[in-house]
Each structure stands twice: as C-alpha cells, then as structure tokens.
Amino acid sequence: MNTCLDCLPCIFRQTLDAVRRVSDDPAFHEKVVRQVAEWICGADLSESPPAMAQRLHRYLRGLTGIDDPYAEAKARDNELALRLLPGLRERLAVSDDPFTLAVRLAIAGNLIDLGPKSDLTPEEVEASIGNVEKEAFSGDVAALRRRVEGVKTILYLADNAGEIVLDRLLIEALGPERVTVAVRGAPVINDATMDDARTAGLHELVSVISNGSDAPGTLLEECAPEFREHFDAADLVISKGQGNFETLSEAPRDICFLFKVKCPVIAGRVDLALGTQALVWLQGEAKCKEAQ
Length: 292
Hints:
Layout: H1 8-22, H2 26-41, H3 49-64, H4 71-94, H5 98-108, H6 122-130, E1 137-138, H7 141-149, E2 154-157, H8 163-174, E3 179-183, H9 194-199, E4 207-210, H10 225-233, E5 236-240, H11 242-248, E6 254-260, H12 264-270, E7 277-283
Parallel strand pairs: 1-7, 2-3, 2-5, 3-4, 5-6
Antiparallel strand pairs: 6-7
C-alpha cells in the first residue's frame, strides 16, 4: 500500500508528538519539523506509510538520542489494560459467544494506537472496551472460527502496547499451544516489543518471537529469518492493526486482519466507516477498494 498525500499531515503530527515527548523547547520543535519537511520533499511516496514512519522515527531517534520516546505512554497503557483484564475475563465467562467477544475485545484494543491519535485518553479506551458489543462490526467471525478449528499452527502478529494485553483473551480462545506471537524488533511509536509481551504475560502462555524490524508494520523484506520461517509456514496468520494491514495487504499468502478503522485512508481502502471493528480476509493481492 503506497503512501498517499493524505498521510503527510499525519507524519508531521507524529513528528511534533514525538519531539514534544522528549523536549519542552519550542525552538527545537521548530527545527525538527523544518528538517522533516525538507526530508518529505524528497521522500518516495511509493513506499508504504509504515516504511515512511520507520524512516521518520529513525531520524527522530538520531536527532534526540532517545530510543523510545513513547516508553512512558506504553507503560501506562499496559497498566490500564492489565487493570481491565480481570473484569473482561468475567464478561467472557458469562458470554453466550465468548469467541466472538474475544475477537471484538482484541479489535477494540487496537484503538490504543498513538500513530493516528497521540492524545488518546484512558477514558476513551475504557469506553470503547465497555461498548465493544455495540460498535459497528464488519467481518465473518464464523469463518475465522472454522479456520481456527482446522489448523495446527497460528502466527499472531501483535501491534501495540496495551492492546497486546487484550490480545491474551483471543490467544487463549485460539488455543495457546499452537500460537506463536510476533512483536516488533525495536521500539517505534507505541508498538509492542518483547518487553511489552513479557509485561502482558504472553511469554508464560505462548512462544514469542521478534520480527527483527523497527517498522510500525511488517516489512517482510527486512524481517528476521526466524520470523519469515514462521510467516511462511504457519497454517493461519492473524494480523493486528492498520500498520500490519498497510504492509501485508498484498503479501503472498492468506491473512486474517483484525483492526479498528482509525483513519480516512484505511476507511477508503476497505470501504468501511471510521470506527468500525474490521475482520478482513485477504489472499495474495489485496481485493479492497483503492483509496481515491
């Protein structure tokens, strides 16, 4: 999926958000934004948005000397999700359809994405999770359930911190003994890394691997060999989040994408309204509506 012109304002917003997390100096903020503006003038828009974001955040880390500007936010969101977890288990225990609820809770967790919305509040997260069964939903959960019943190995591509805690509920429903979870190889925005997987307790539940990349998506050409082996060999790949969708929607295999539609570009791509909980099956080349 190429970067479109509508993605560029988001790049500038991410720039300001990241530098304001590490510095209170307006002069430094202006300097960085001006330098990013010069960089964008020569950027290759045929790259995917996560590839562009990867370059941006590498550049910002070089300027600031800070490897993880979002560390505090990630810790806060993990703590919030862990606090909510016992109550969500209780909801699942009394649900008439716990598998569908687990799918919807995992997708609801995808709201915790500081790429498209850097000022997300705990109250917004709790409201989304509390109203998870009332929000618009698109996709065939029954098809996912049938597919899960017939496979031996599942590769689960995690997305963000906080969200990864809620992923536990779906992973438990899938059957942890056959699930491998993949996280980012290094910090980028608030994407989940190995540290976040351990905070969520996933290392005690499933095998967790790094994809070896610092992109806020899955750029197969630069992922670690171990990850590529799992990606190619898994009977089923479940992919969380918009960044993974942007980078894998034309991947040479079938994938079940789970995400919350959070930006107009993606909404146009999948022909769904903003805020929709999306379960999208794609095989090979993406068969969704191209954004205008």
